[in-house]
């Protein structure tokens, strides 16, 4: 009888499990979570990372949010804009196009007809330039931010943390979390960058700050 390599490996695993029964493993969770940076440093670091990822960055004070968003959407010729149901509608006071409020009943293929989507964000890591979405009402379901070719994401500087550990502590573990680090992109075997393969081709980030 011939024994295959797979059967040999599985037999060894079974033998090892019999000799050392599985037991609870104490995993250390004392991550560094207290690092801080001044507002100006967090803004500069986040902007640098986002630009490096080829994302558009627009900085404004809170009162200019509608104006800046309208300018971004106008430059991209967005006529049909998708938004999550809990988005702050005052952000759209200067936008003149059609607004489509997403819901779980909207078939995903219909999202492809949108010119872009506008959402808020949960938390953002300056060190990695990563934006976290947690499916809150002002961010919506994951499909809404993955199907349209343009994602305009509003980030409040107060939600920007220096590093990943600080960002994770602000998240709710039971919420579905999407991590965004620049526009969707991938590379083939020849390292040719292709954008828009797994999500939006363009990411525009509007950072609100009172600095």
Q: What is the general shape?
A: globular
Number of strands: 12
Which structural category do the helix and sheet elements fall into?
Answer: alpha/beta
> What fold name goes in the CATH topology slot?
Rossmann fold
In helices, the fraction of residues equals: 10-25%
Rg value: 22 Å
Top CATH class: Alpha Beta
How far is it from the N-terminal to the C-terminal residue, by CA? 76 Å
What is the CATH homology-level superfamily?
Answer: NagB/RpiA/CoA transferase-like
Q: How many structural units, i.e. domains?
A: 1
Q: Main sheet?
A: 6 strands, parallel
Task: Please write the string of helix (H) and strand (E) elements.
Answer: HHEHEEEEEHEEHEEEE
> In percent terms, what proportion of residues is strand?
15-25%
Q: Would you identify the regions where 5 or more consecutive residues have pLDDT less than 50?
A: none
User: Would you identify the CATH architecture?
Assistant: 3-Layer(aba) Sandwich
Strand order of the largest sheet: 1-12-7-4-2-3
Q: If helices are DSSP runs of H or I spanning 4 or more residues, what is the number of helices?
A: 5
InterPro entries: FTHF_cligase-like_sf, LUD_dom, NagB/RpiA_transferase-like
Domain LUD: 47-207
Pfam families: LUD_dom (PF02589)
Protein name: Lactate utilization protein C
């Amino acid at each position: 009888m011939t024994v295959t390599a797979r059967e040999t490996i599985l037999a060894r695993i079974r033998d090892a499990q019999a000799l050392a029964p599985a037991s609870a493993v104490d995993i250390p969770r004392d991550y560094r979570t207290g690092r801080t940076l001044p507002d100006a440093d967090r803004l500069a670091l986040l902007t640098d990372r986002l630009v490096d990822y080829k994302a558009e960055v627009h900085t404004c004070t809170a009162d200019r949010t509608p104006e800046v968003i309208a300018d971004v959407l106008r430059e991209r010729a967005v006529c049909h804009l998708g938004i999550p149901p809990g988005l702050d509608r005052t952000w759209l006071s200067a936008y003149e196009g059609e607004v489509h409020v997403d819901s779980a009943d909207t078939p995903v293929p219909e999202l492809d007809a949108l010119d872009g989507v506008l959402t808020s964000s949960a938390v953002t890591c300056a060190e990695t330039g990563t934006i976290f979405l947690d499916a809150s009402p002002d961010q919506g379901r994951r499909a809404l931010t993955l199907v349209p070719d343009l994602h305009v994401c509003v980030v409040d500087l107060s939600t920007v943390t220096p590093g990943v550990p600080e960002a994770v502590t602000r998240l709710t573990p039971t919420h579905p979390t999407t991590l965004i680090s620049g526009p969707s992109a991938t590379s083939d075997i020849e390292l040719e960058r292709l954008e828009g393969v797994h999500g939006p081709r363009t990411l525009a980030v509007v950072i609100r700050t009172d600095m």
